[in-house]
Amino acid sequence: MSSQIELVCGDITQLDVDAIVNAANNSLLGGGGVDGAIHAAAGPQLLDECRSLGGCETGEAKLTRGYRLKAPWIIHTVGPVWYGGDDQEAEMLEQCYRSVFGQAVAAQLNSVAFPAISCGVYGYPAKEAIAIAVGTVLKLLKTYPQIDKVIFCSFSQEMHRLYQEELKLHR
Ligand code: AR6
């Protein structure tokens, strides 16, 4: 298992990292789930900045400031909606992790915390999504050594356990 990866069970808005990742929607104008929690914790200036961004395609990522968060930056990405698995969901989910790393490297950030992108409202099966998240991040960490810490933040013990099991497979 990569020593750069940490698993945390809790609220991603409380984490002290360079950037937390938001599982947003194409409008970038807020929503429920982790998106709602991040907007509530960061404060209204986040929505003002998001309005200027012109939305975000699925699989892409955009950077904003973190405002009232401990994390100075937020990287917003839009995961795929799960339509059964034959609609390029896996490719798009992998692309989210790649796009987030692209933004983090461009902004010279060193630590990033991810929620389980697409695993809530967007319905992606958790085990499959976590396999993509962990596998893709392990590859990206080799390519971009300047990223020295990635946290996978779960919001439930069940999700936390799935990350632990997936990481064991890579030991
Ligand atoms: N900290 C960490 N993880 C969280 C938190 C939190 N505070 N809150 C929820 N999660 P979701 P999606 C977990 O639905 O599936 C929004 O409305 C949650 O338990 O937030 O990508 C957007 O605007 C789940 O495991 O994101 C979009 O419309 C994971 O975060 C849509 O939902 C992702 O769940 C995006 O859906």
Topology:
Elements: E1 5-9, E2 19-23, H1 33-42, H2 44-51, E3 61-65, E4 73-77, H3 89-106, E5 111-114, H4 126-143, E6 149-154, H5 157-168
Parallel strand pairs: 1-6, 2-4, 2-5, 5-6
Antiparallel strand pairs: 3-4
Helix pairs in contact: 3-4, 4-5
The chain binds ligand AR6.
Ligand AR6 binds at residues 11-13, 23-25, 31-35, 37, 79, 115-122, 153, 155, 159.
Features:
5 helices, 39% helix, 171 residues, 6 strands, alpha/beta, six-stranded mixed beta sheet, binds ligand AR6, Leucine Aminopeptidase, subunit E, domain 1, globular
Q: What's this entry about, in short?
A:
This protein has 171 residues and is an alpha/beta fold. Helices cover 39% and strands 18% of the residues.
Word description of this protein:
It contains five helices and six strands. By secondary structure, it is α/β, with parallel strands linked by helices. It has a single domain (5-169), classed as Leucine Aminopeptidase, subunit E, domain 1 (3-Layer(aba) Sandwich). The longest helix has 18 residues, at 89-106. The radius of gyration is 15 Å and the shape is globular. The N and C termini lie close together (4 Å). The structure holds ligand AR6.
Give the oligomer, counting copies of the same chain as homo and different chains as hetero: single chain
Q: Main beta sheet: strand number and arrangement?
A: 6 strands, mixed
CATH architectural designation? 3-Layer(aba) Sandwich
What would the principal axes of the Cα set say about the shape?
globular
Based on secondary structure, the structural category is: alpha/beta
Biggest β-sheet: strands ordered side by side in the sheet: 1-6-5-2-4-3
CATH class categorisation: Alpha Beta
Rg over C-alpha atoms, rounded to the nearest angstrom: 15 Å
CATH fold label: Leucine Aminopeptidase, subunit E, domain 1
Low-confidence stretches: none
Taken in chain order, the helices and strands follow as: EEHHEEHEHEH
Which percent band covers the strand fraction? 15-25%
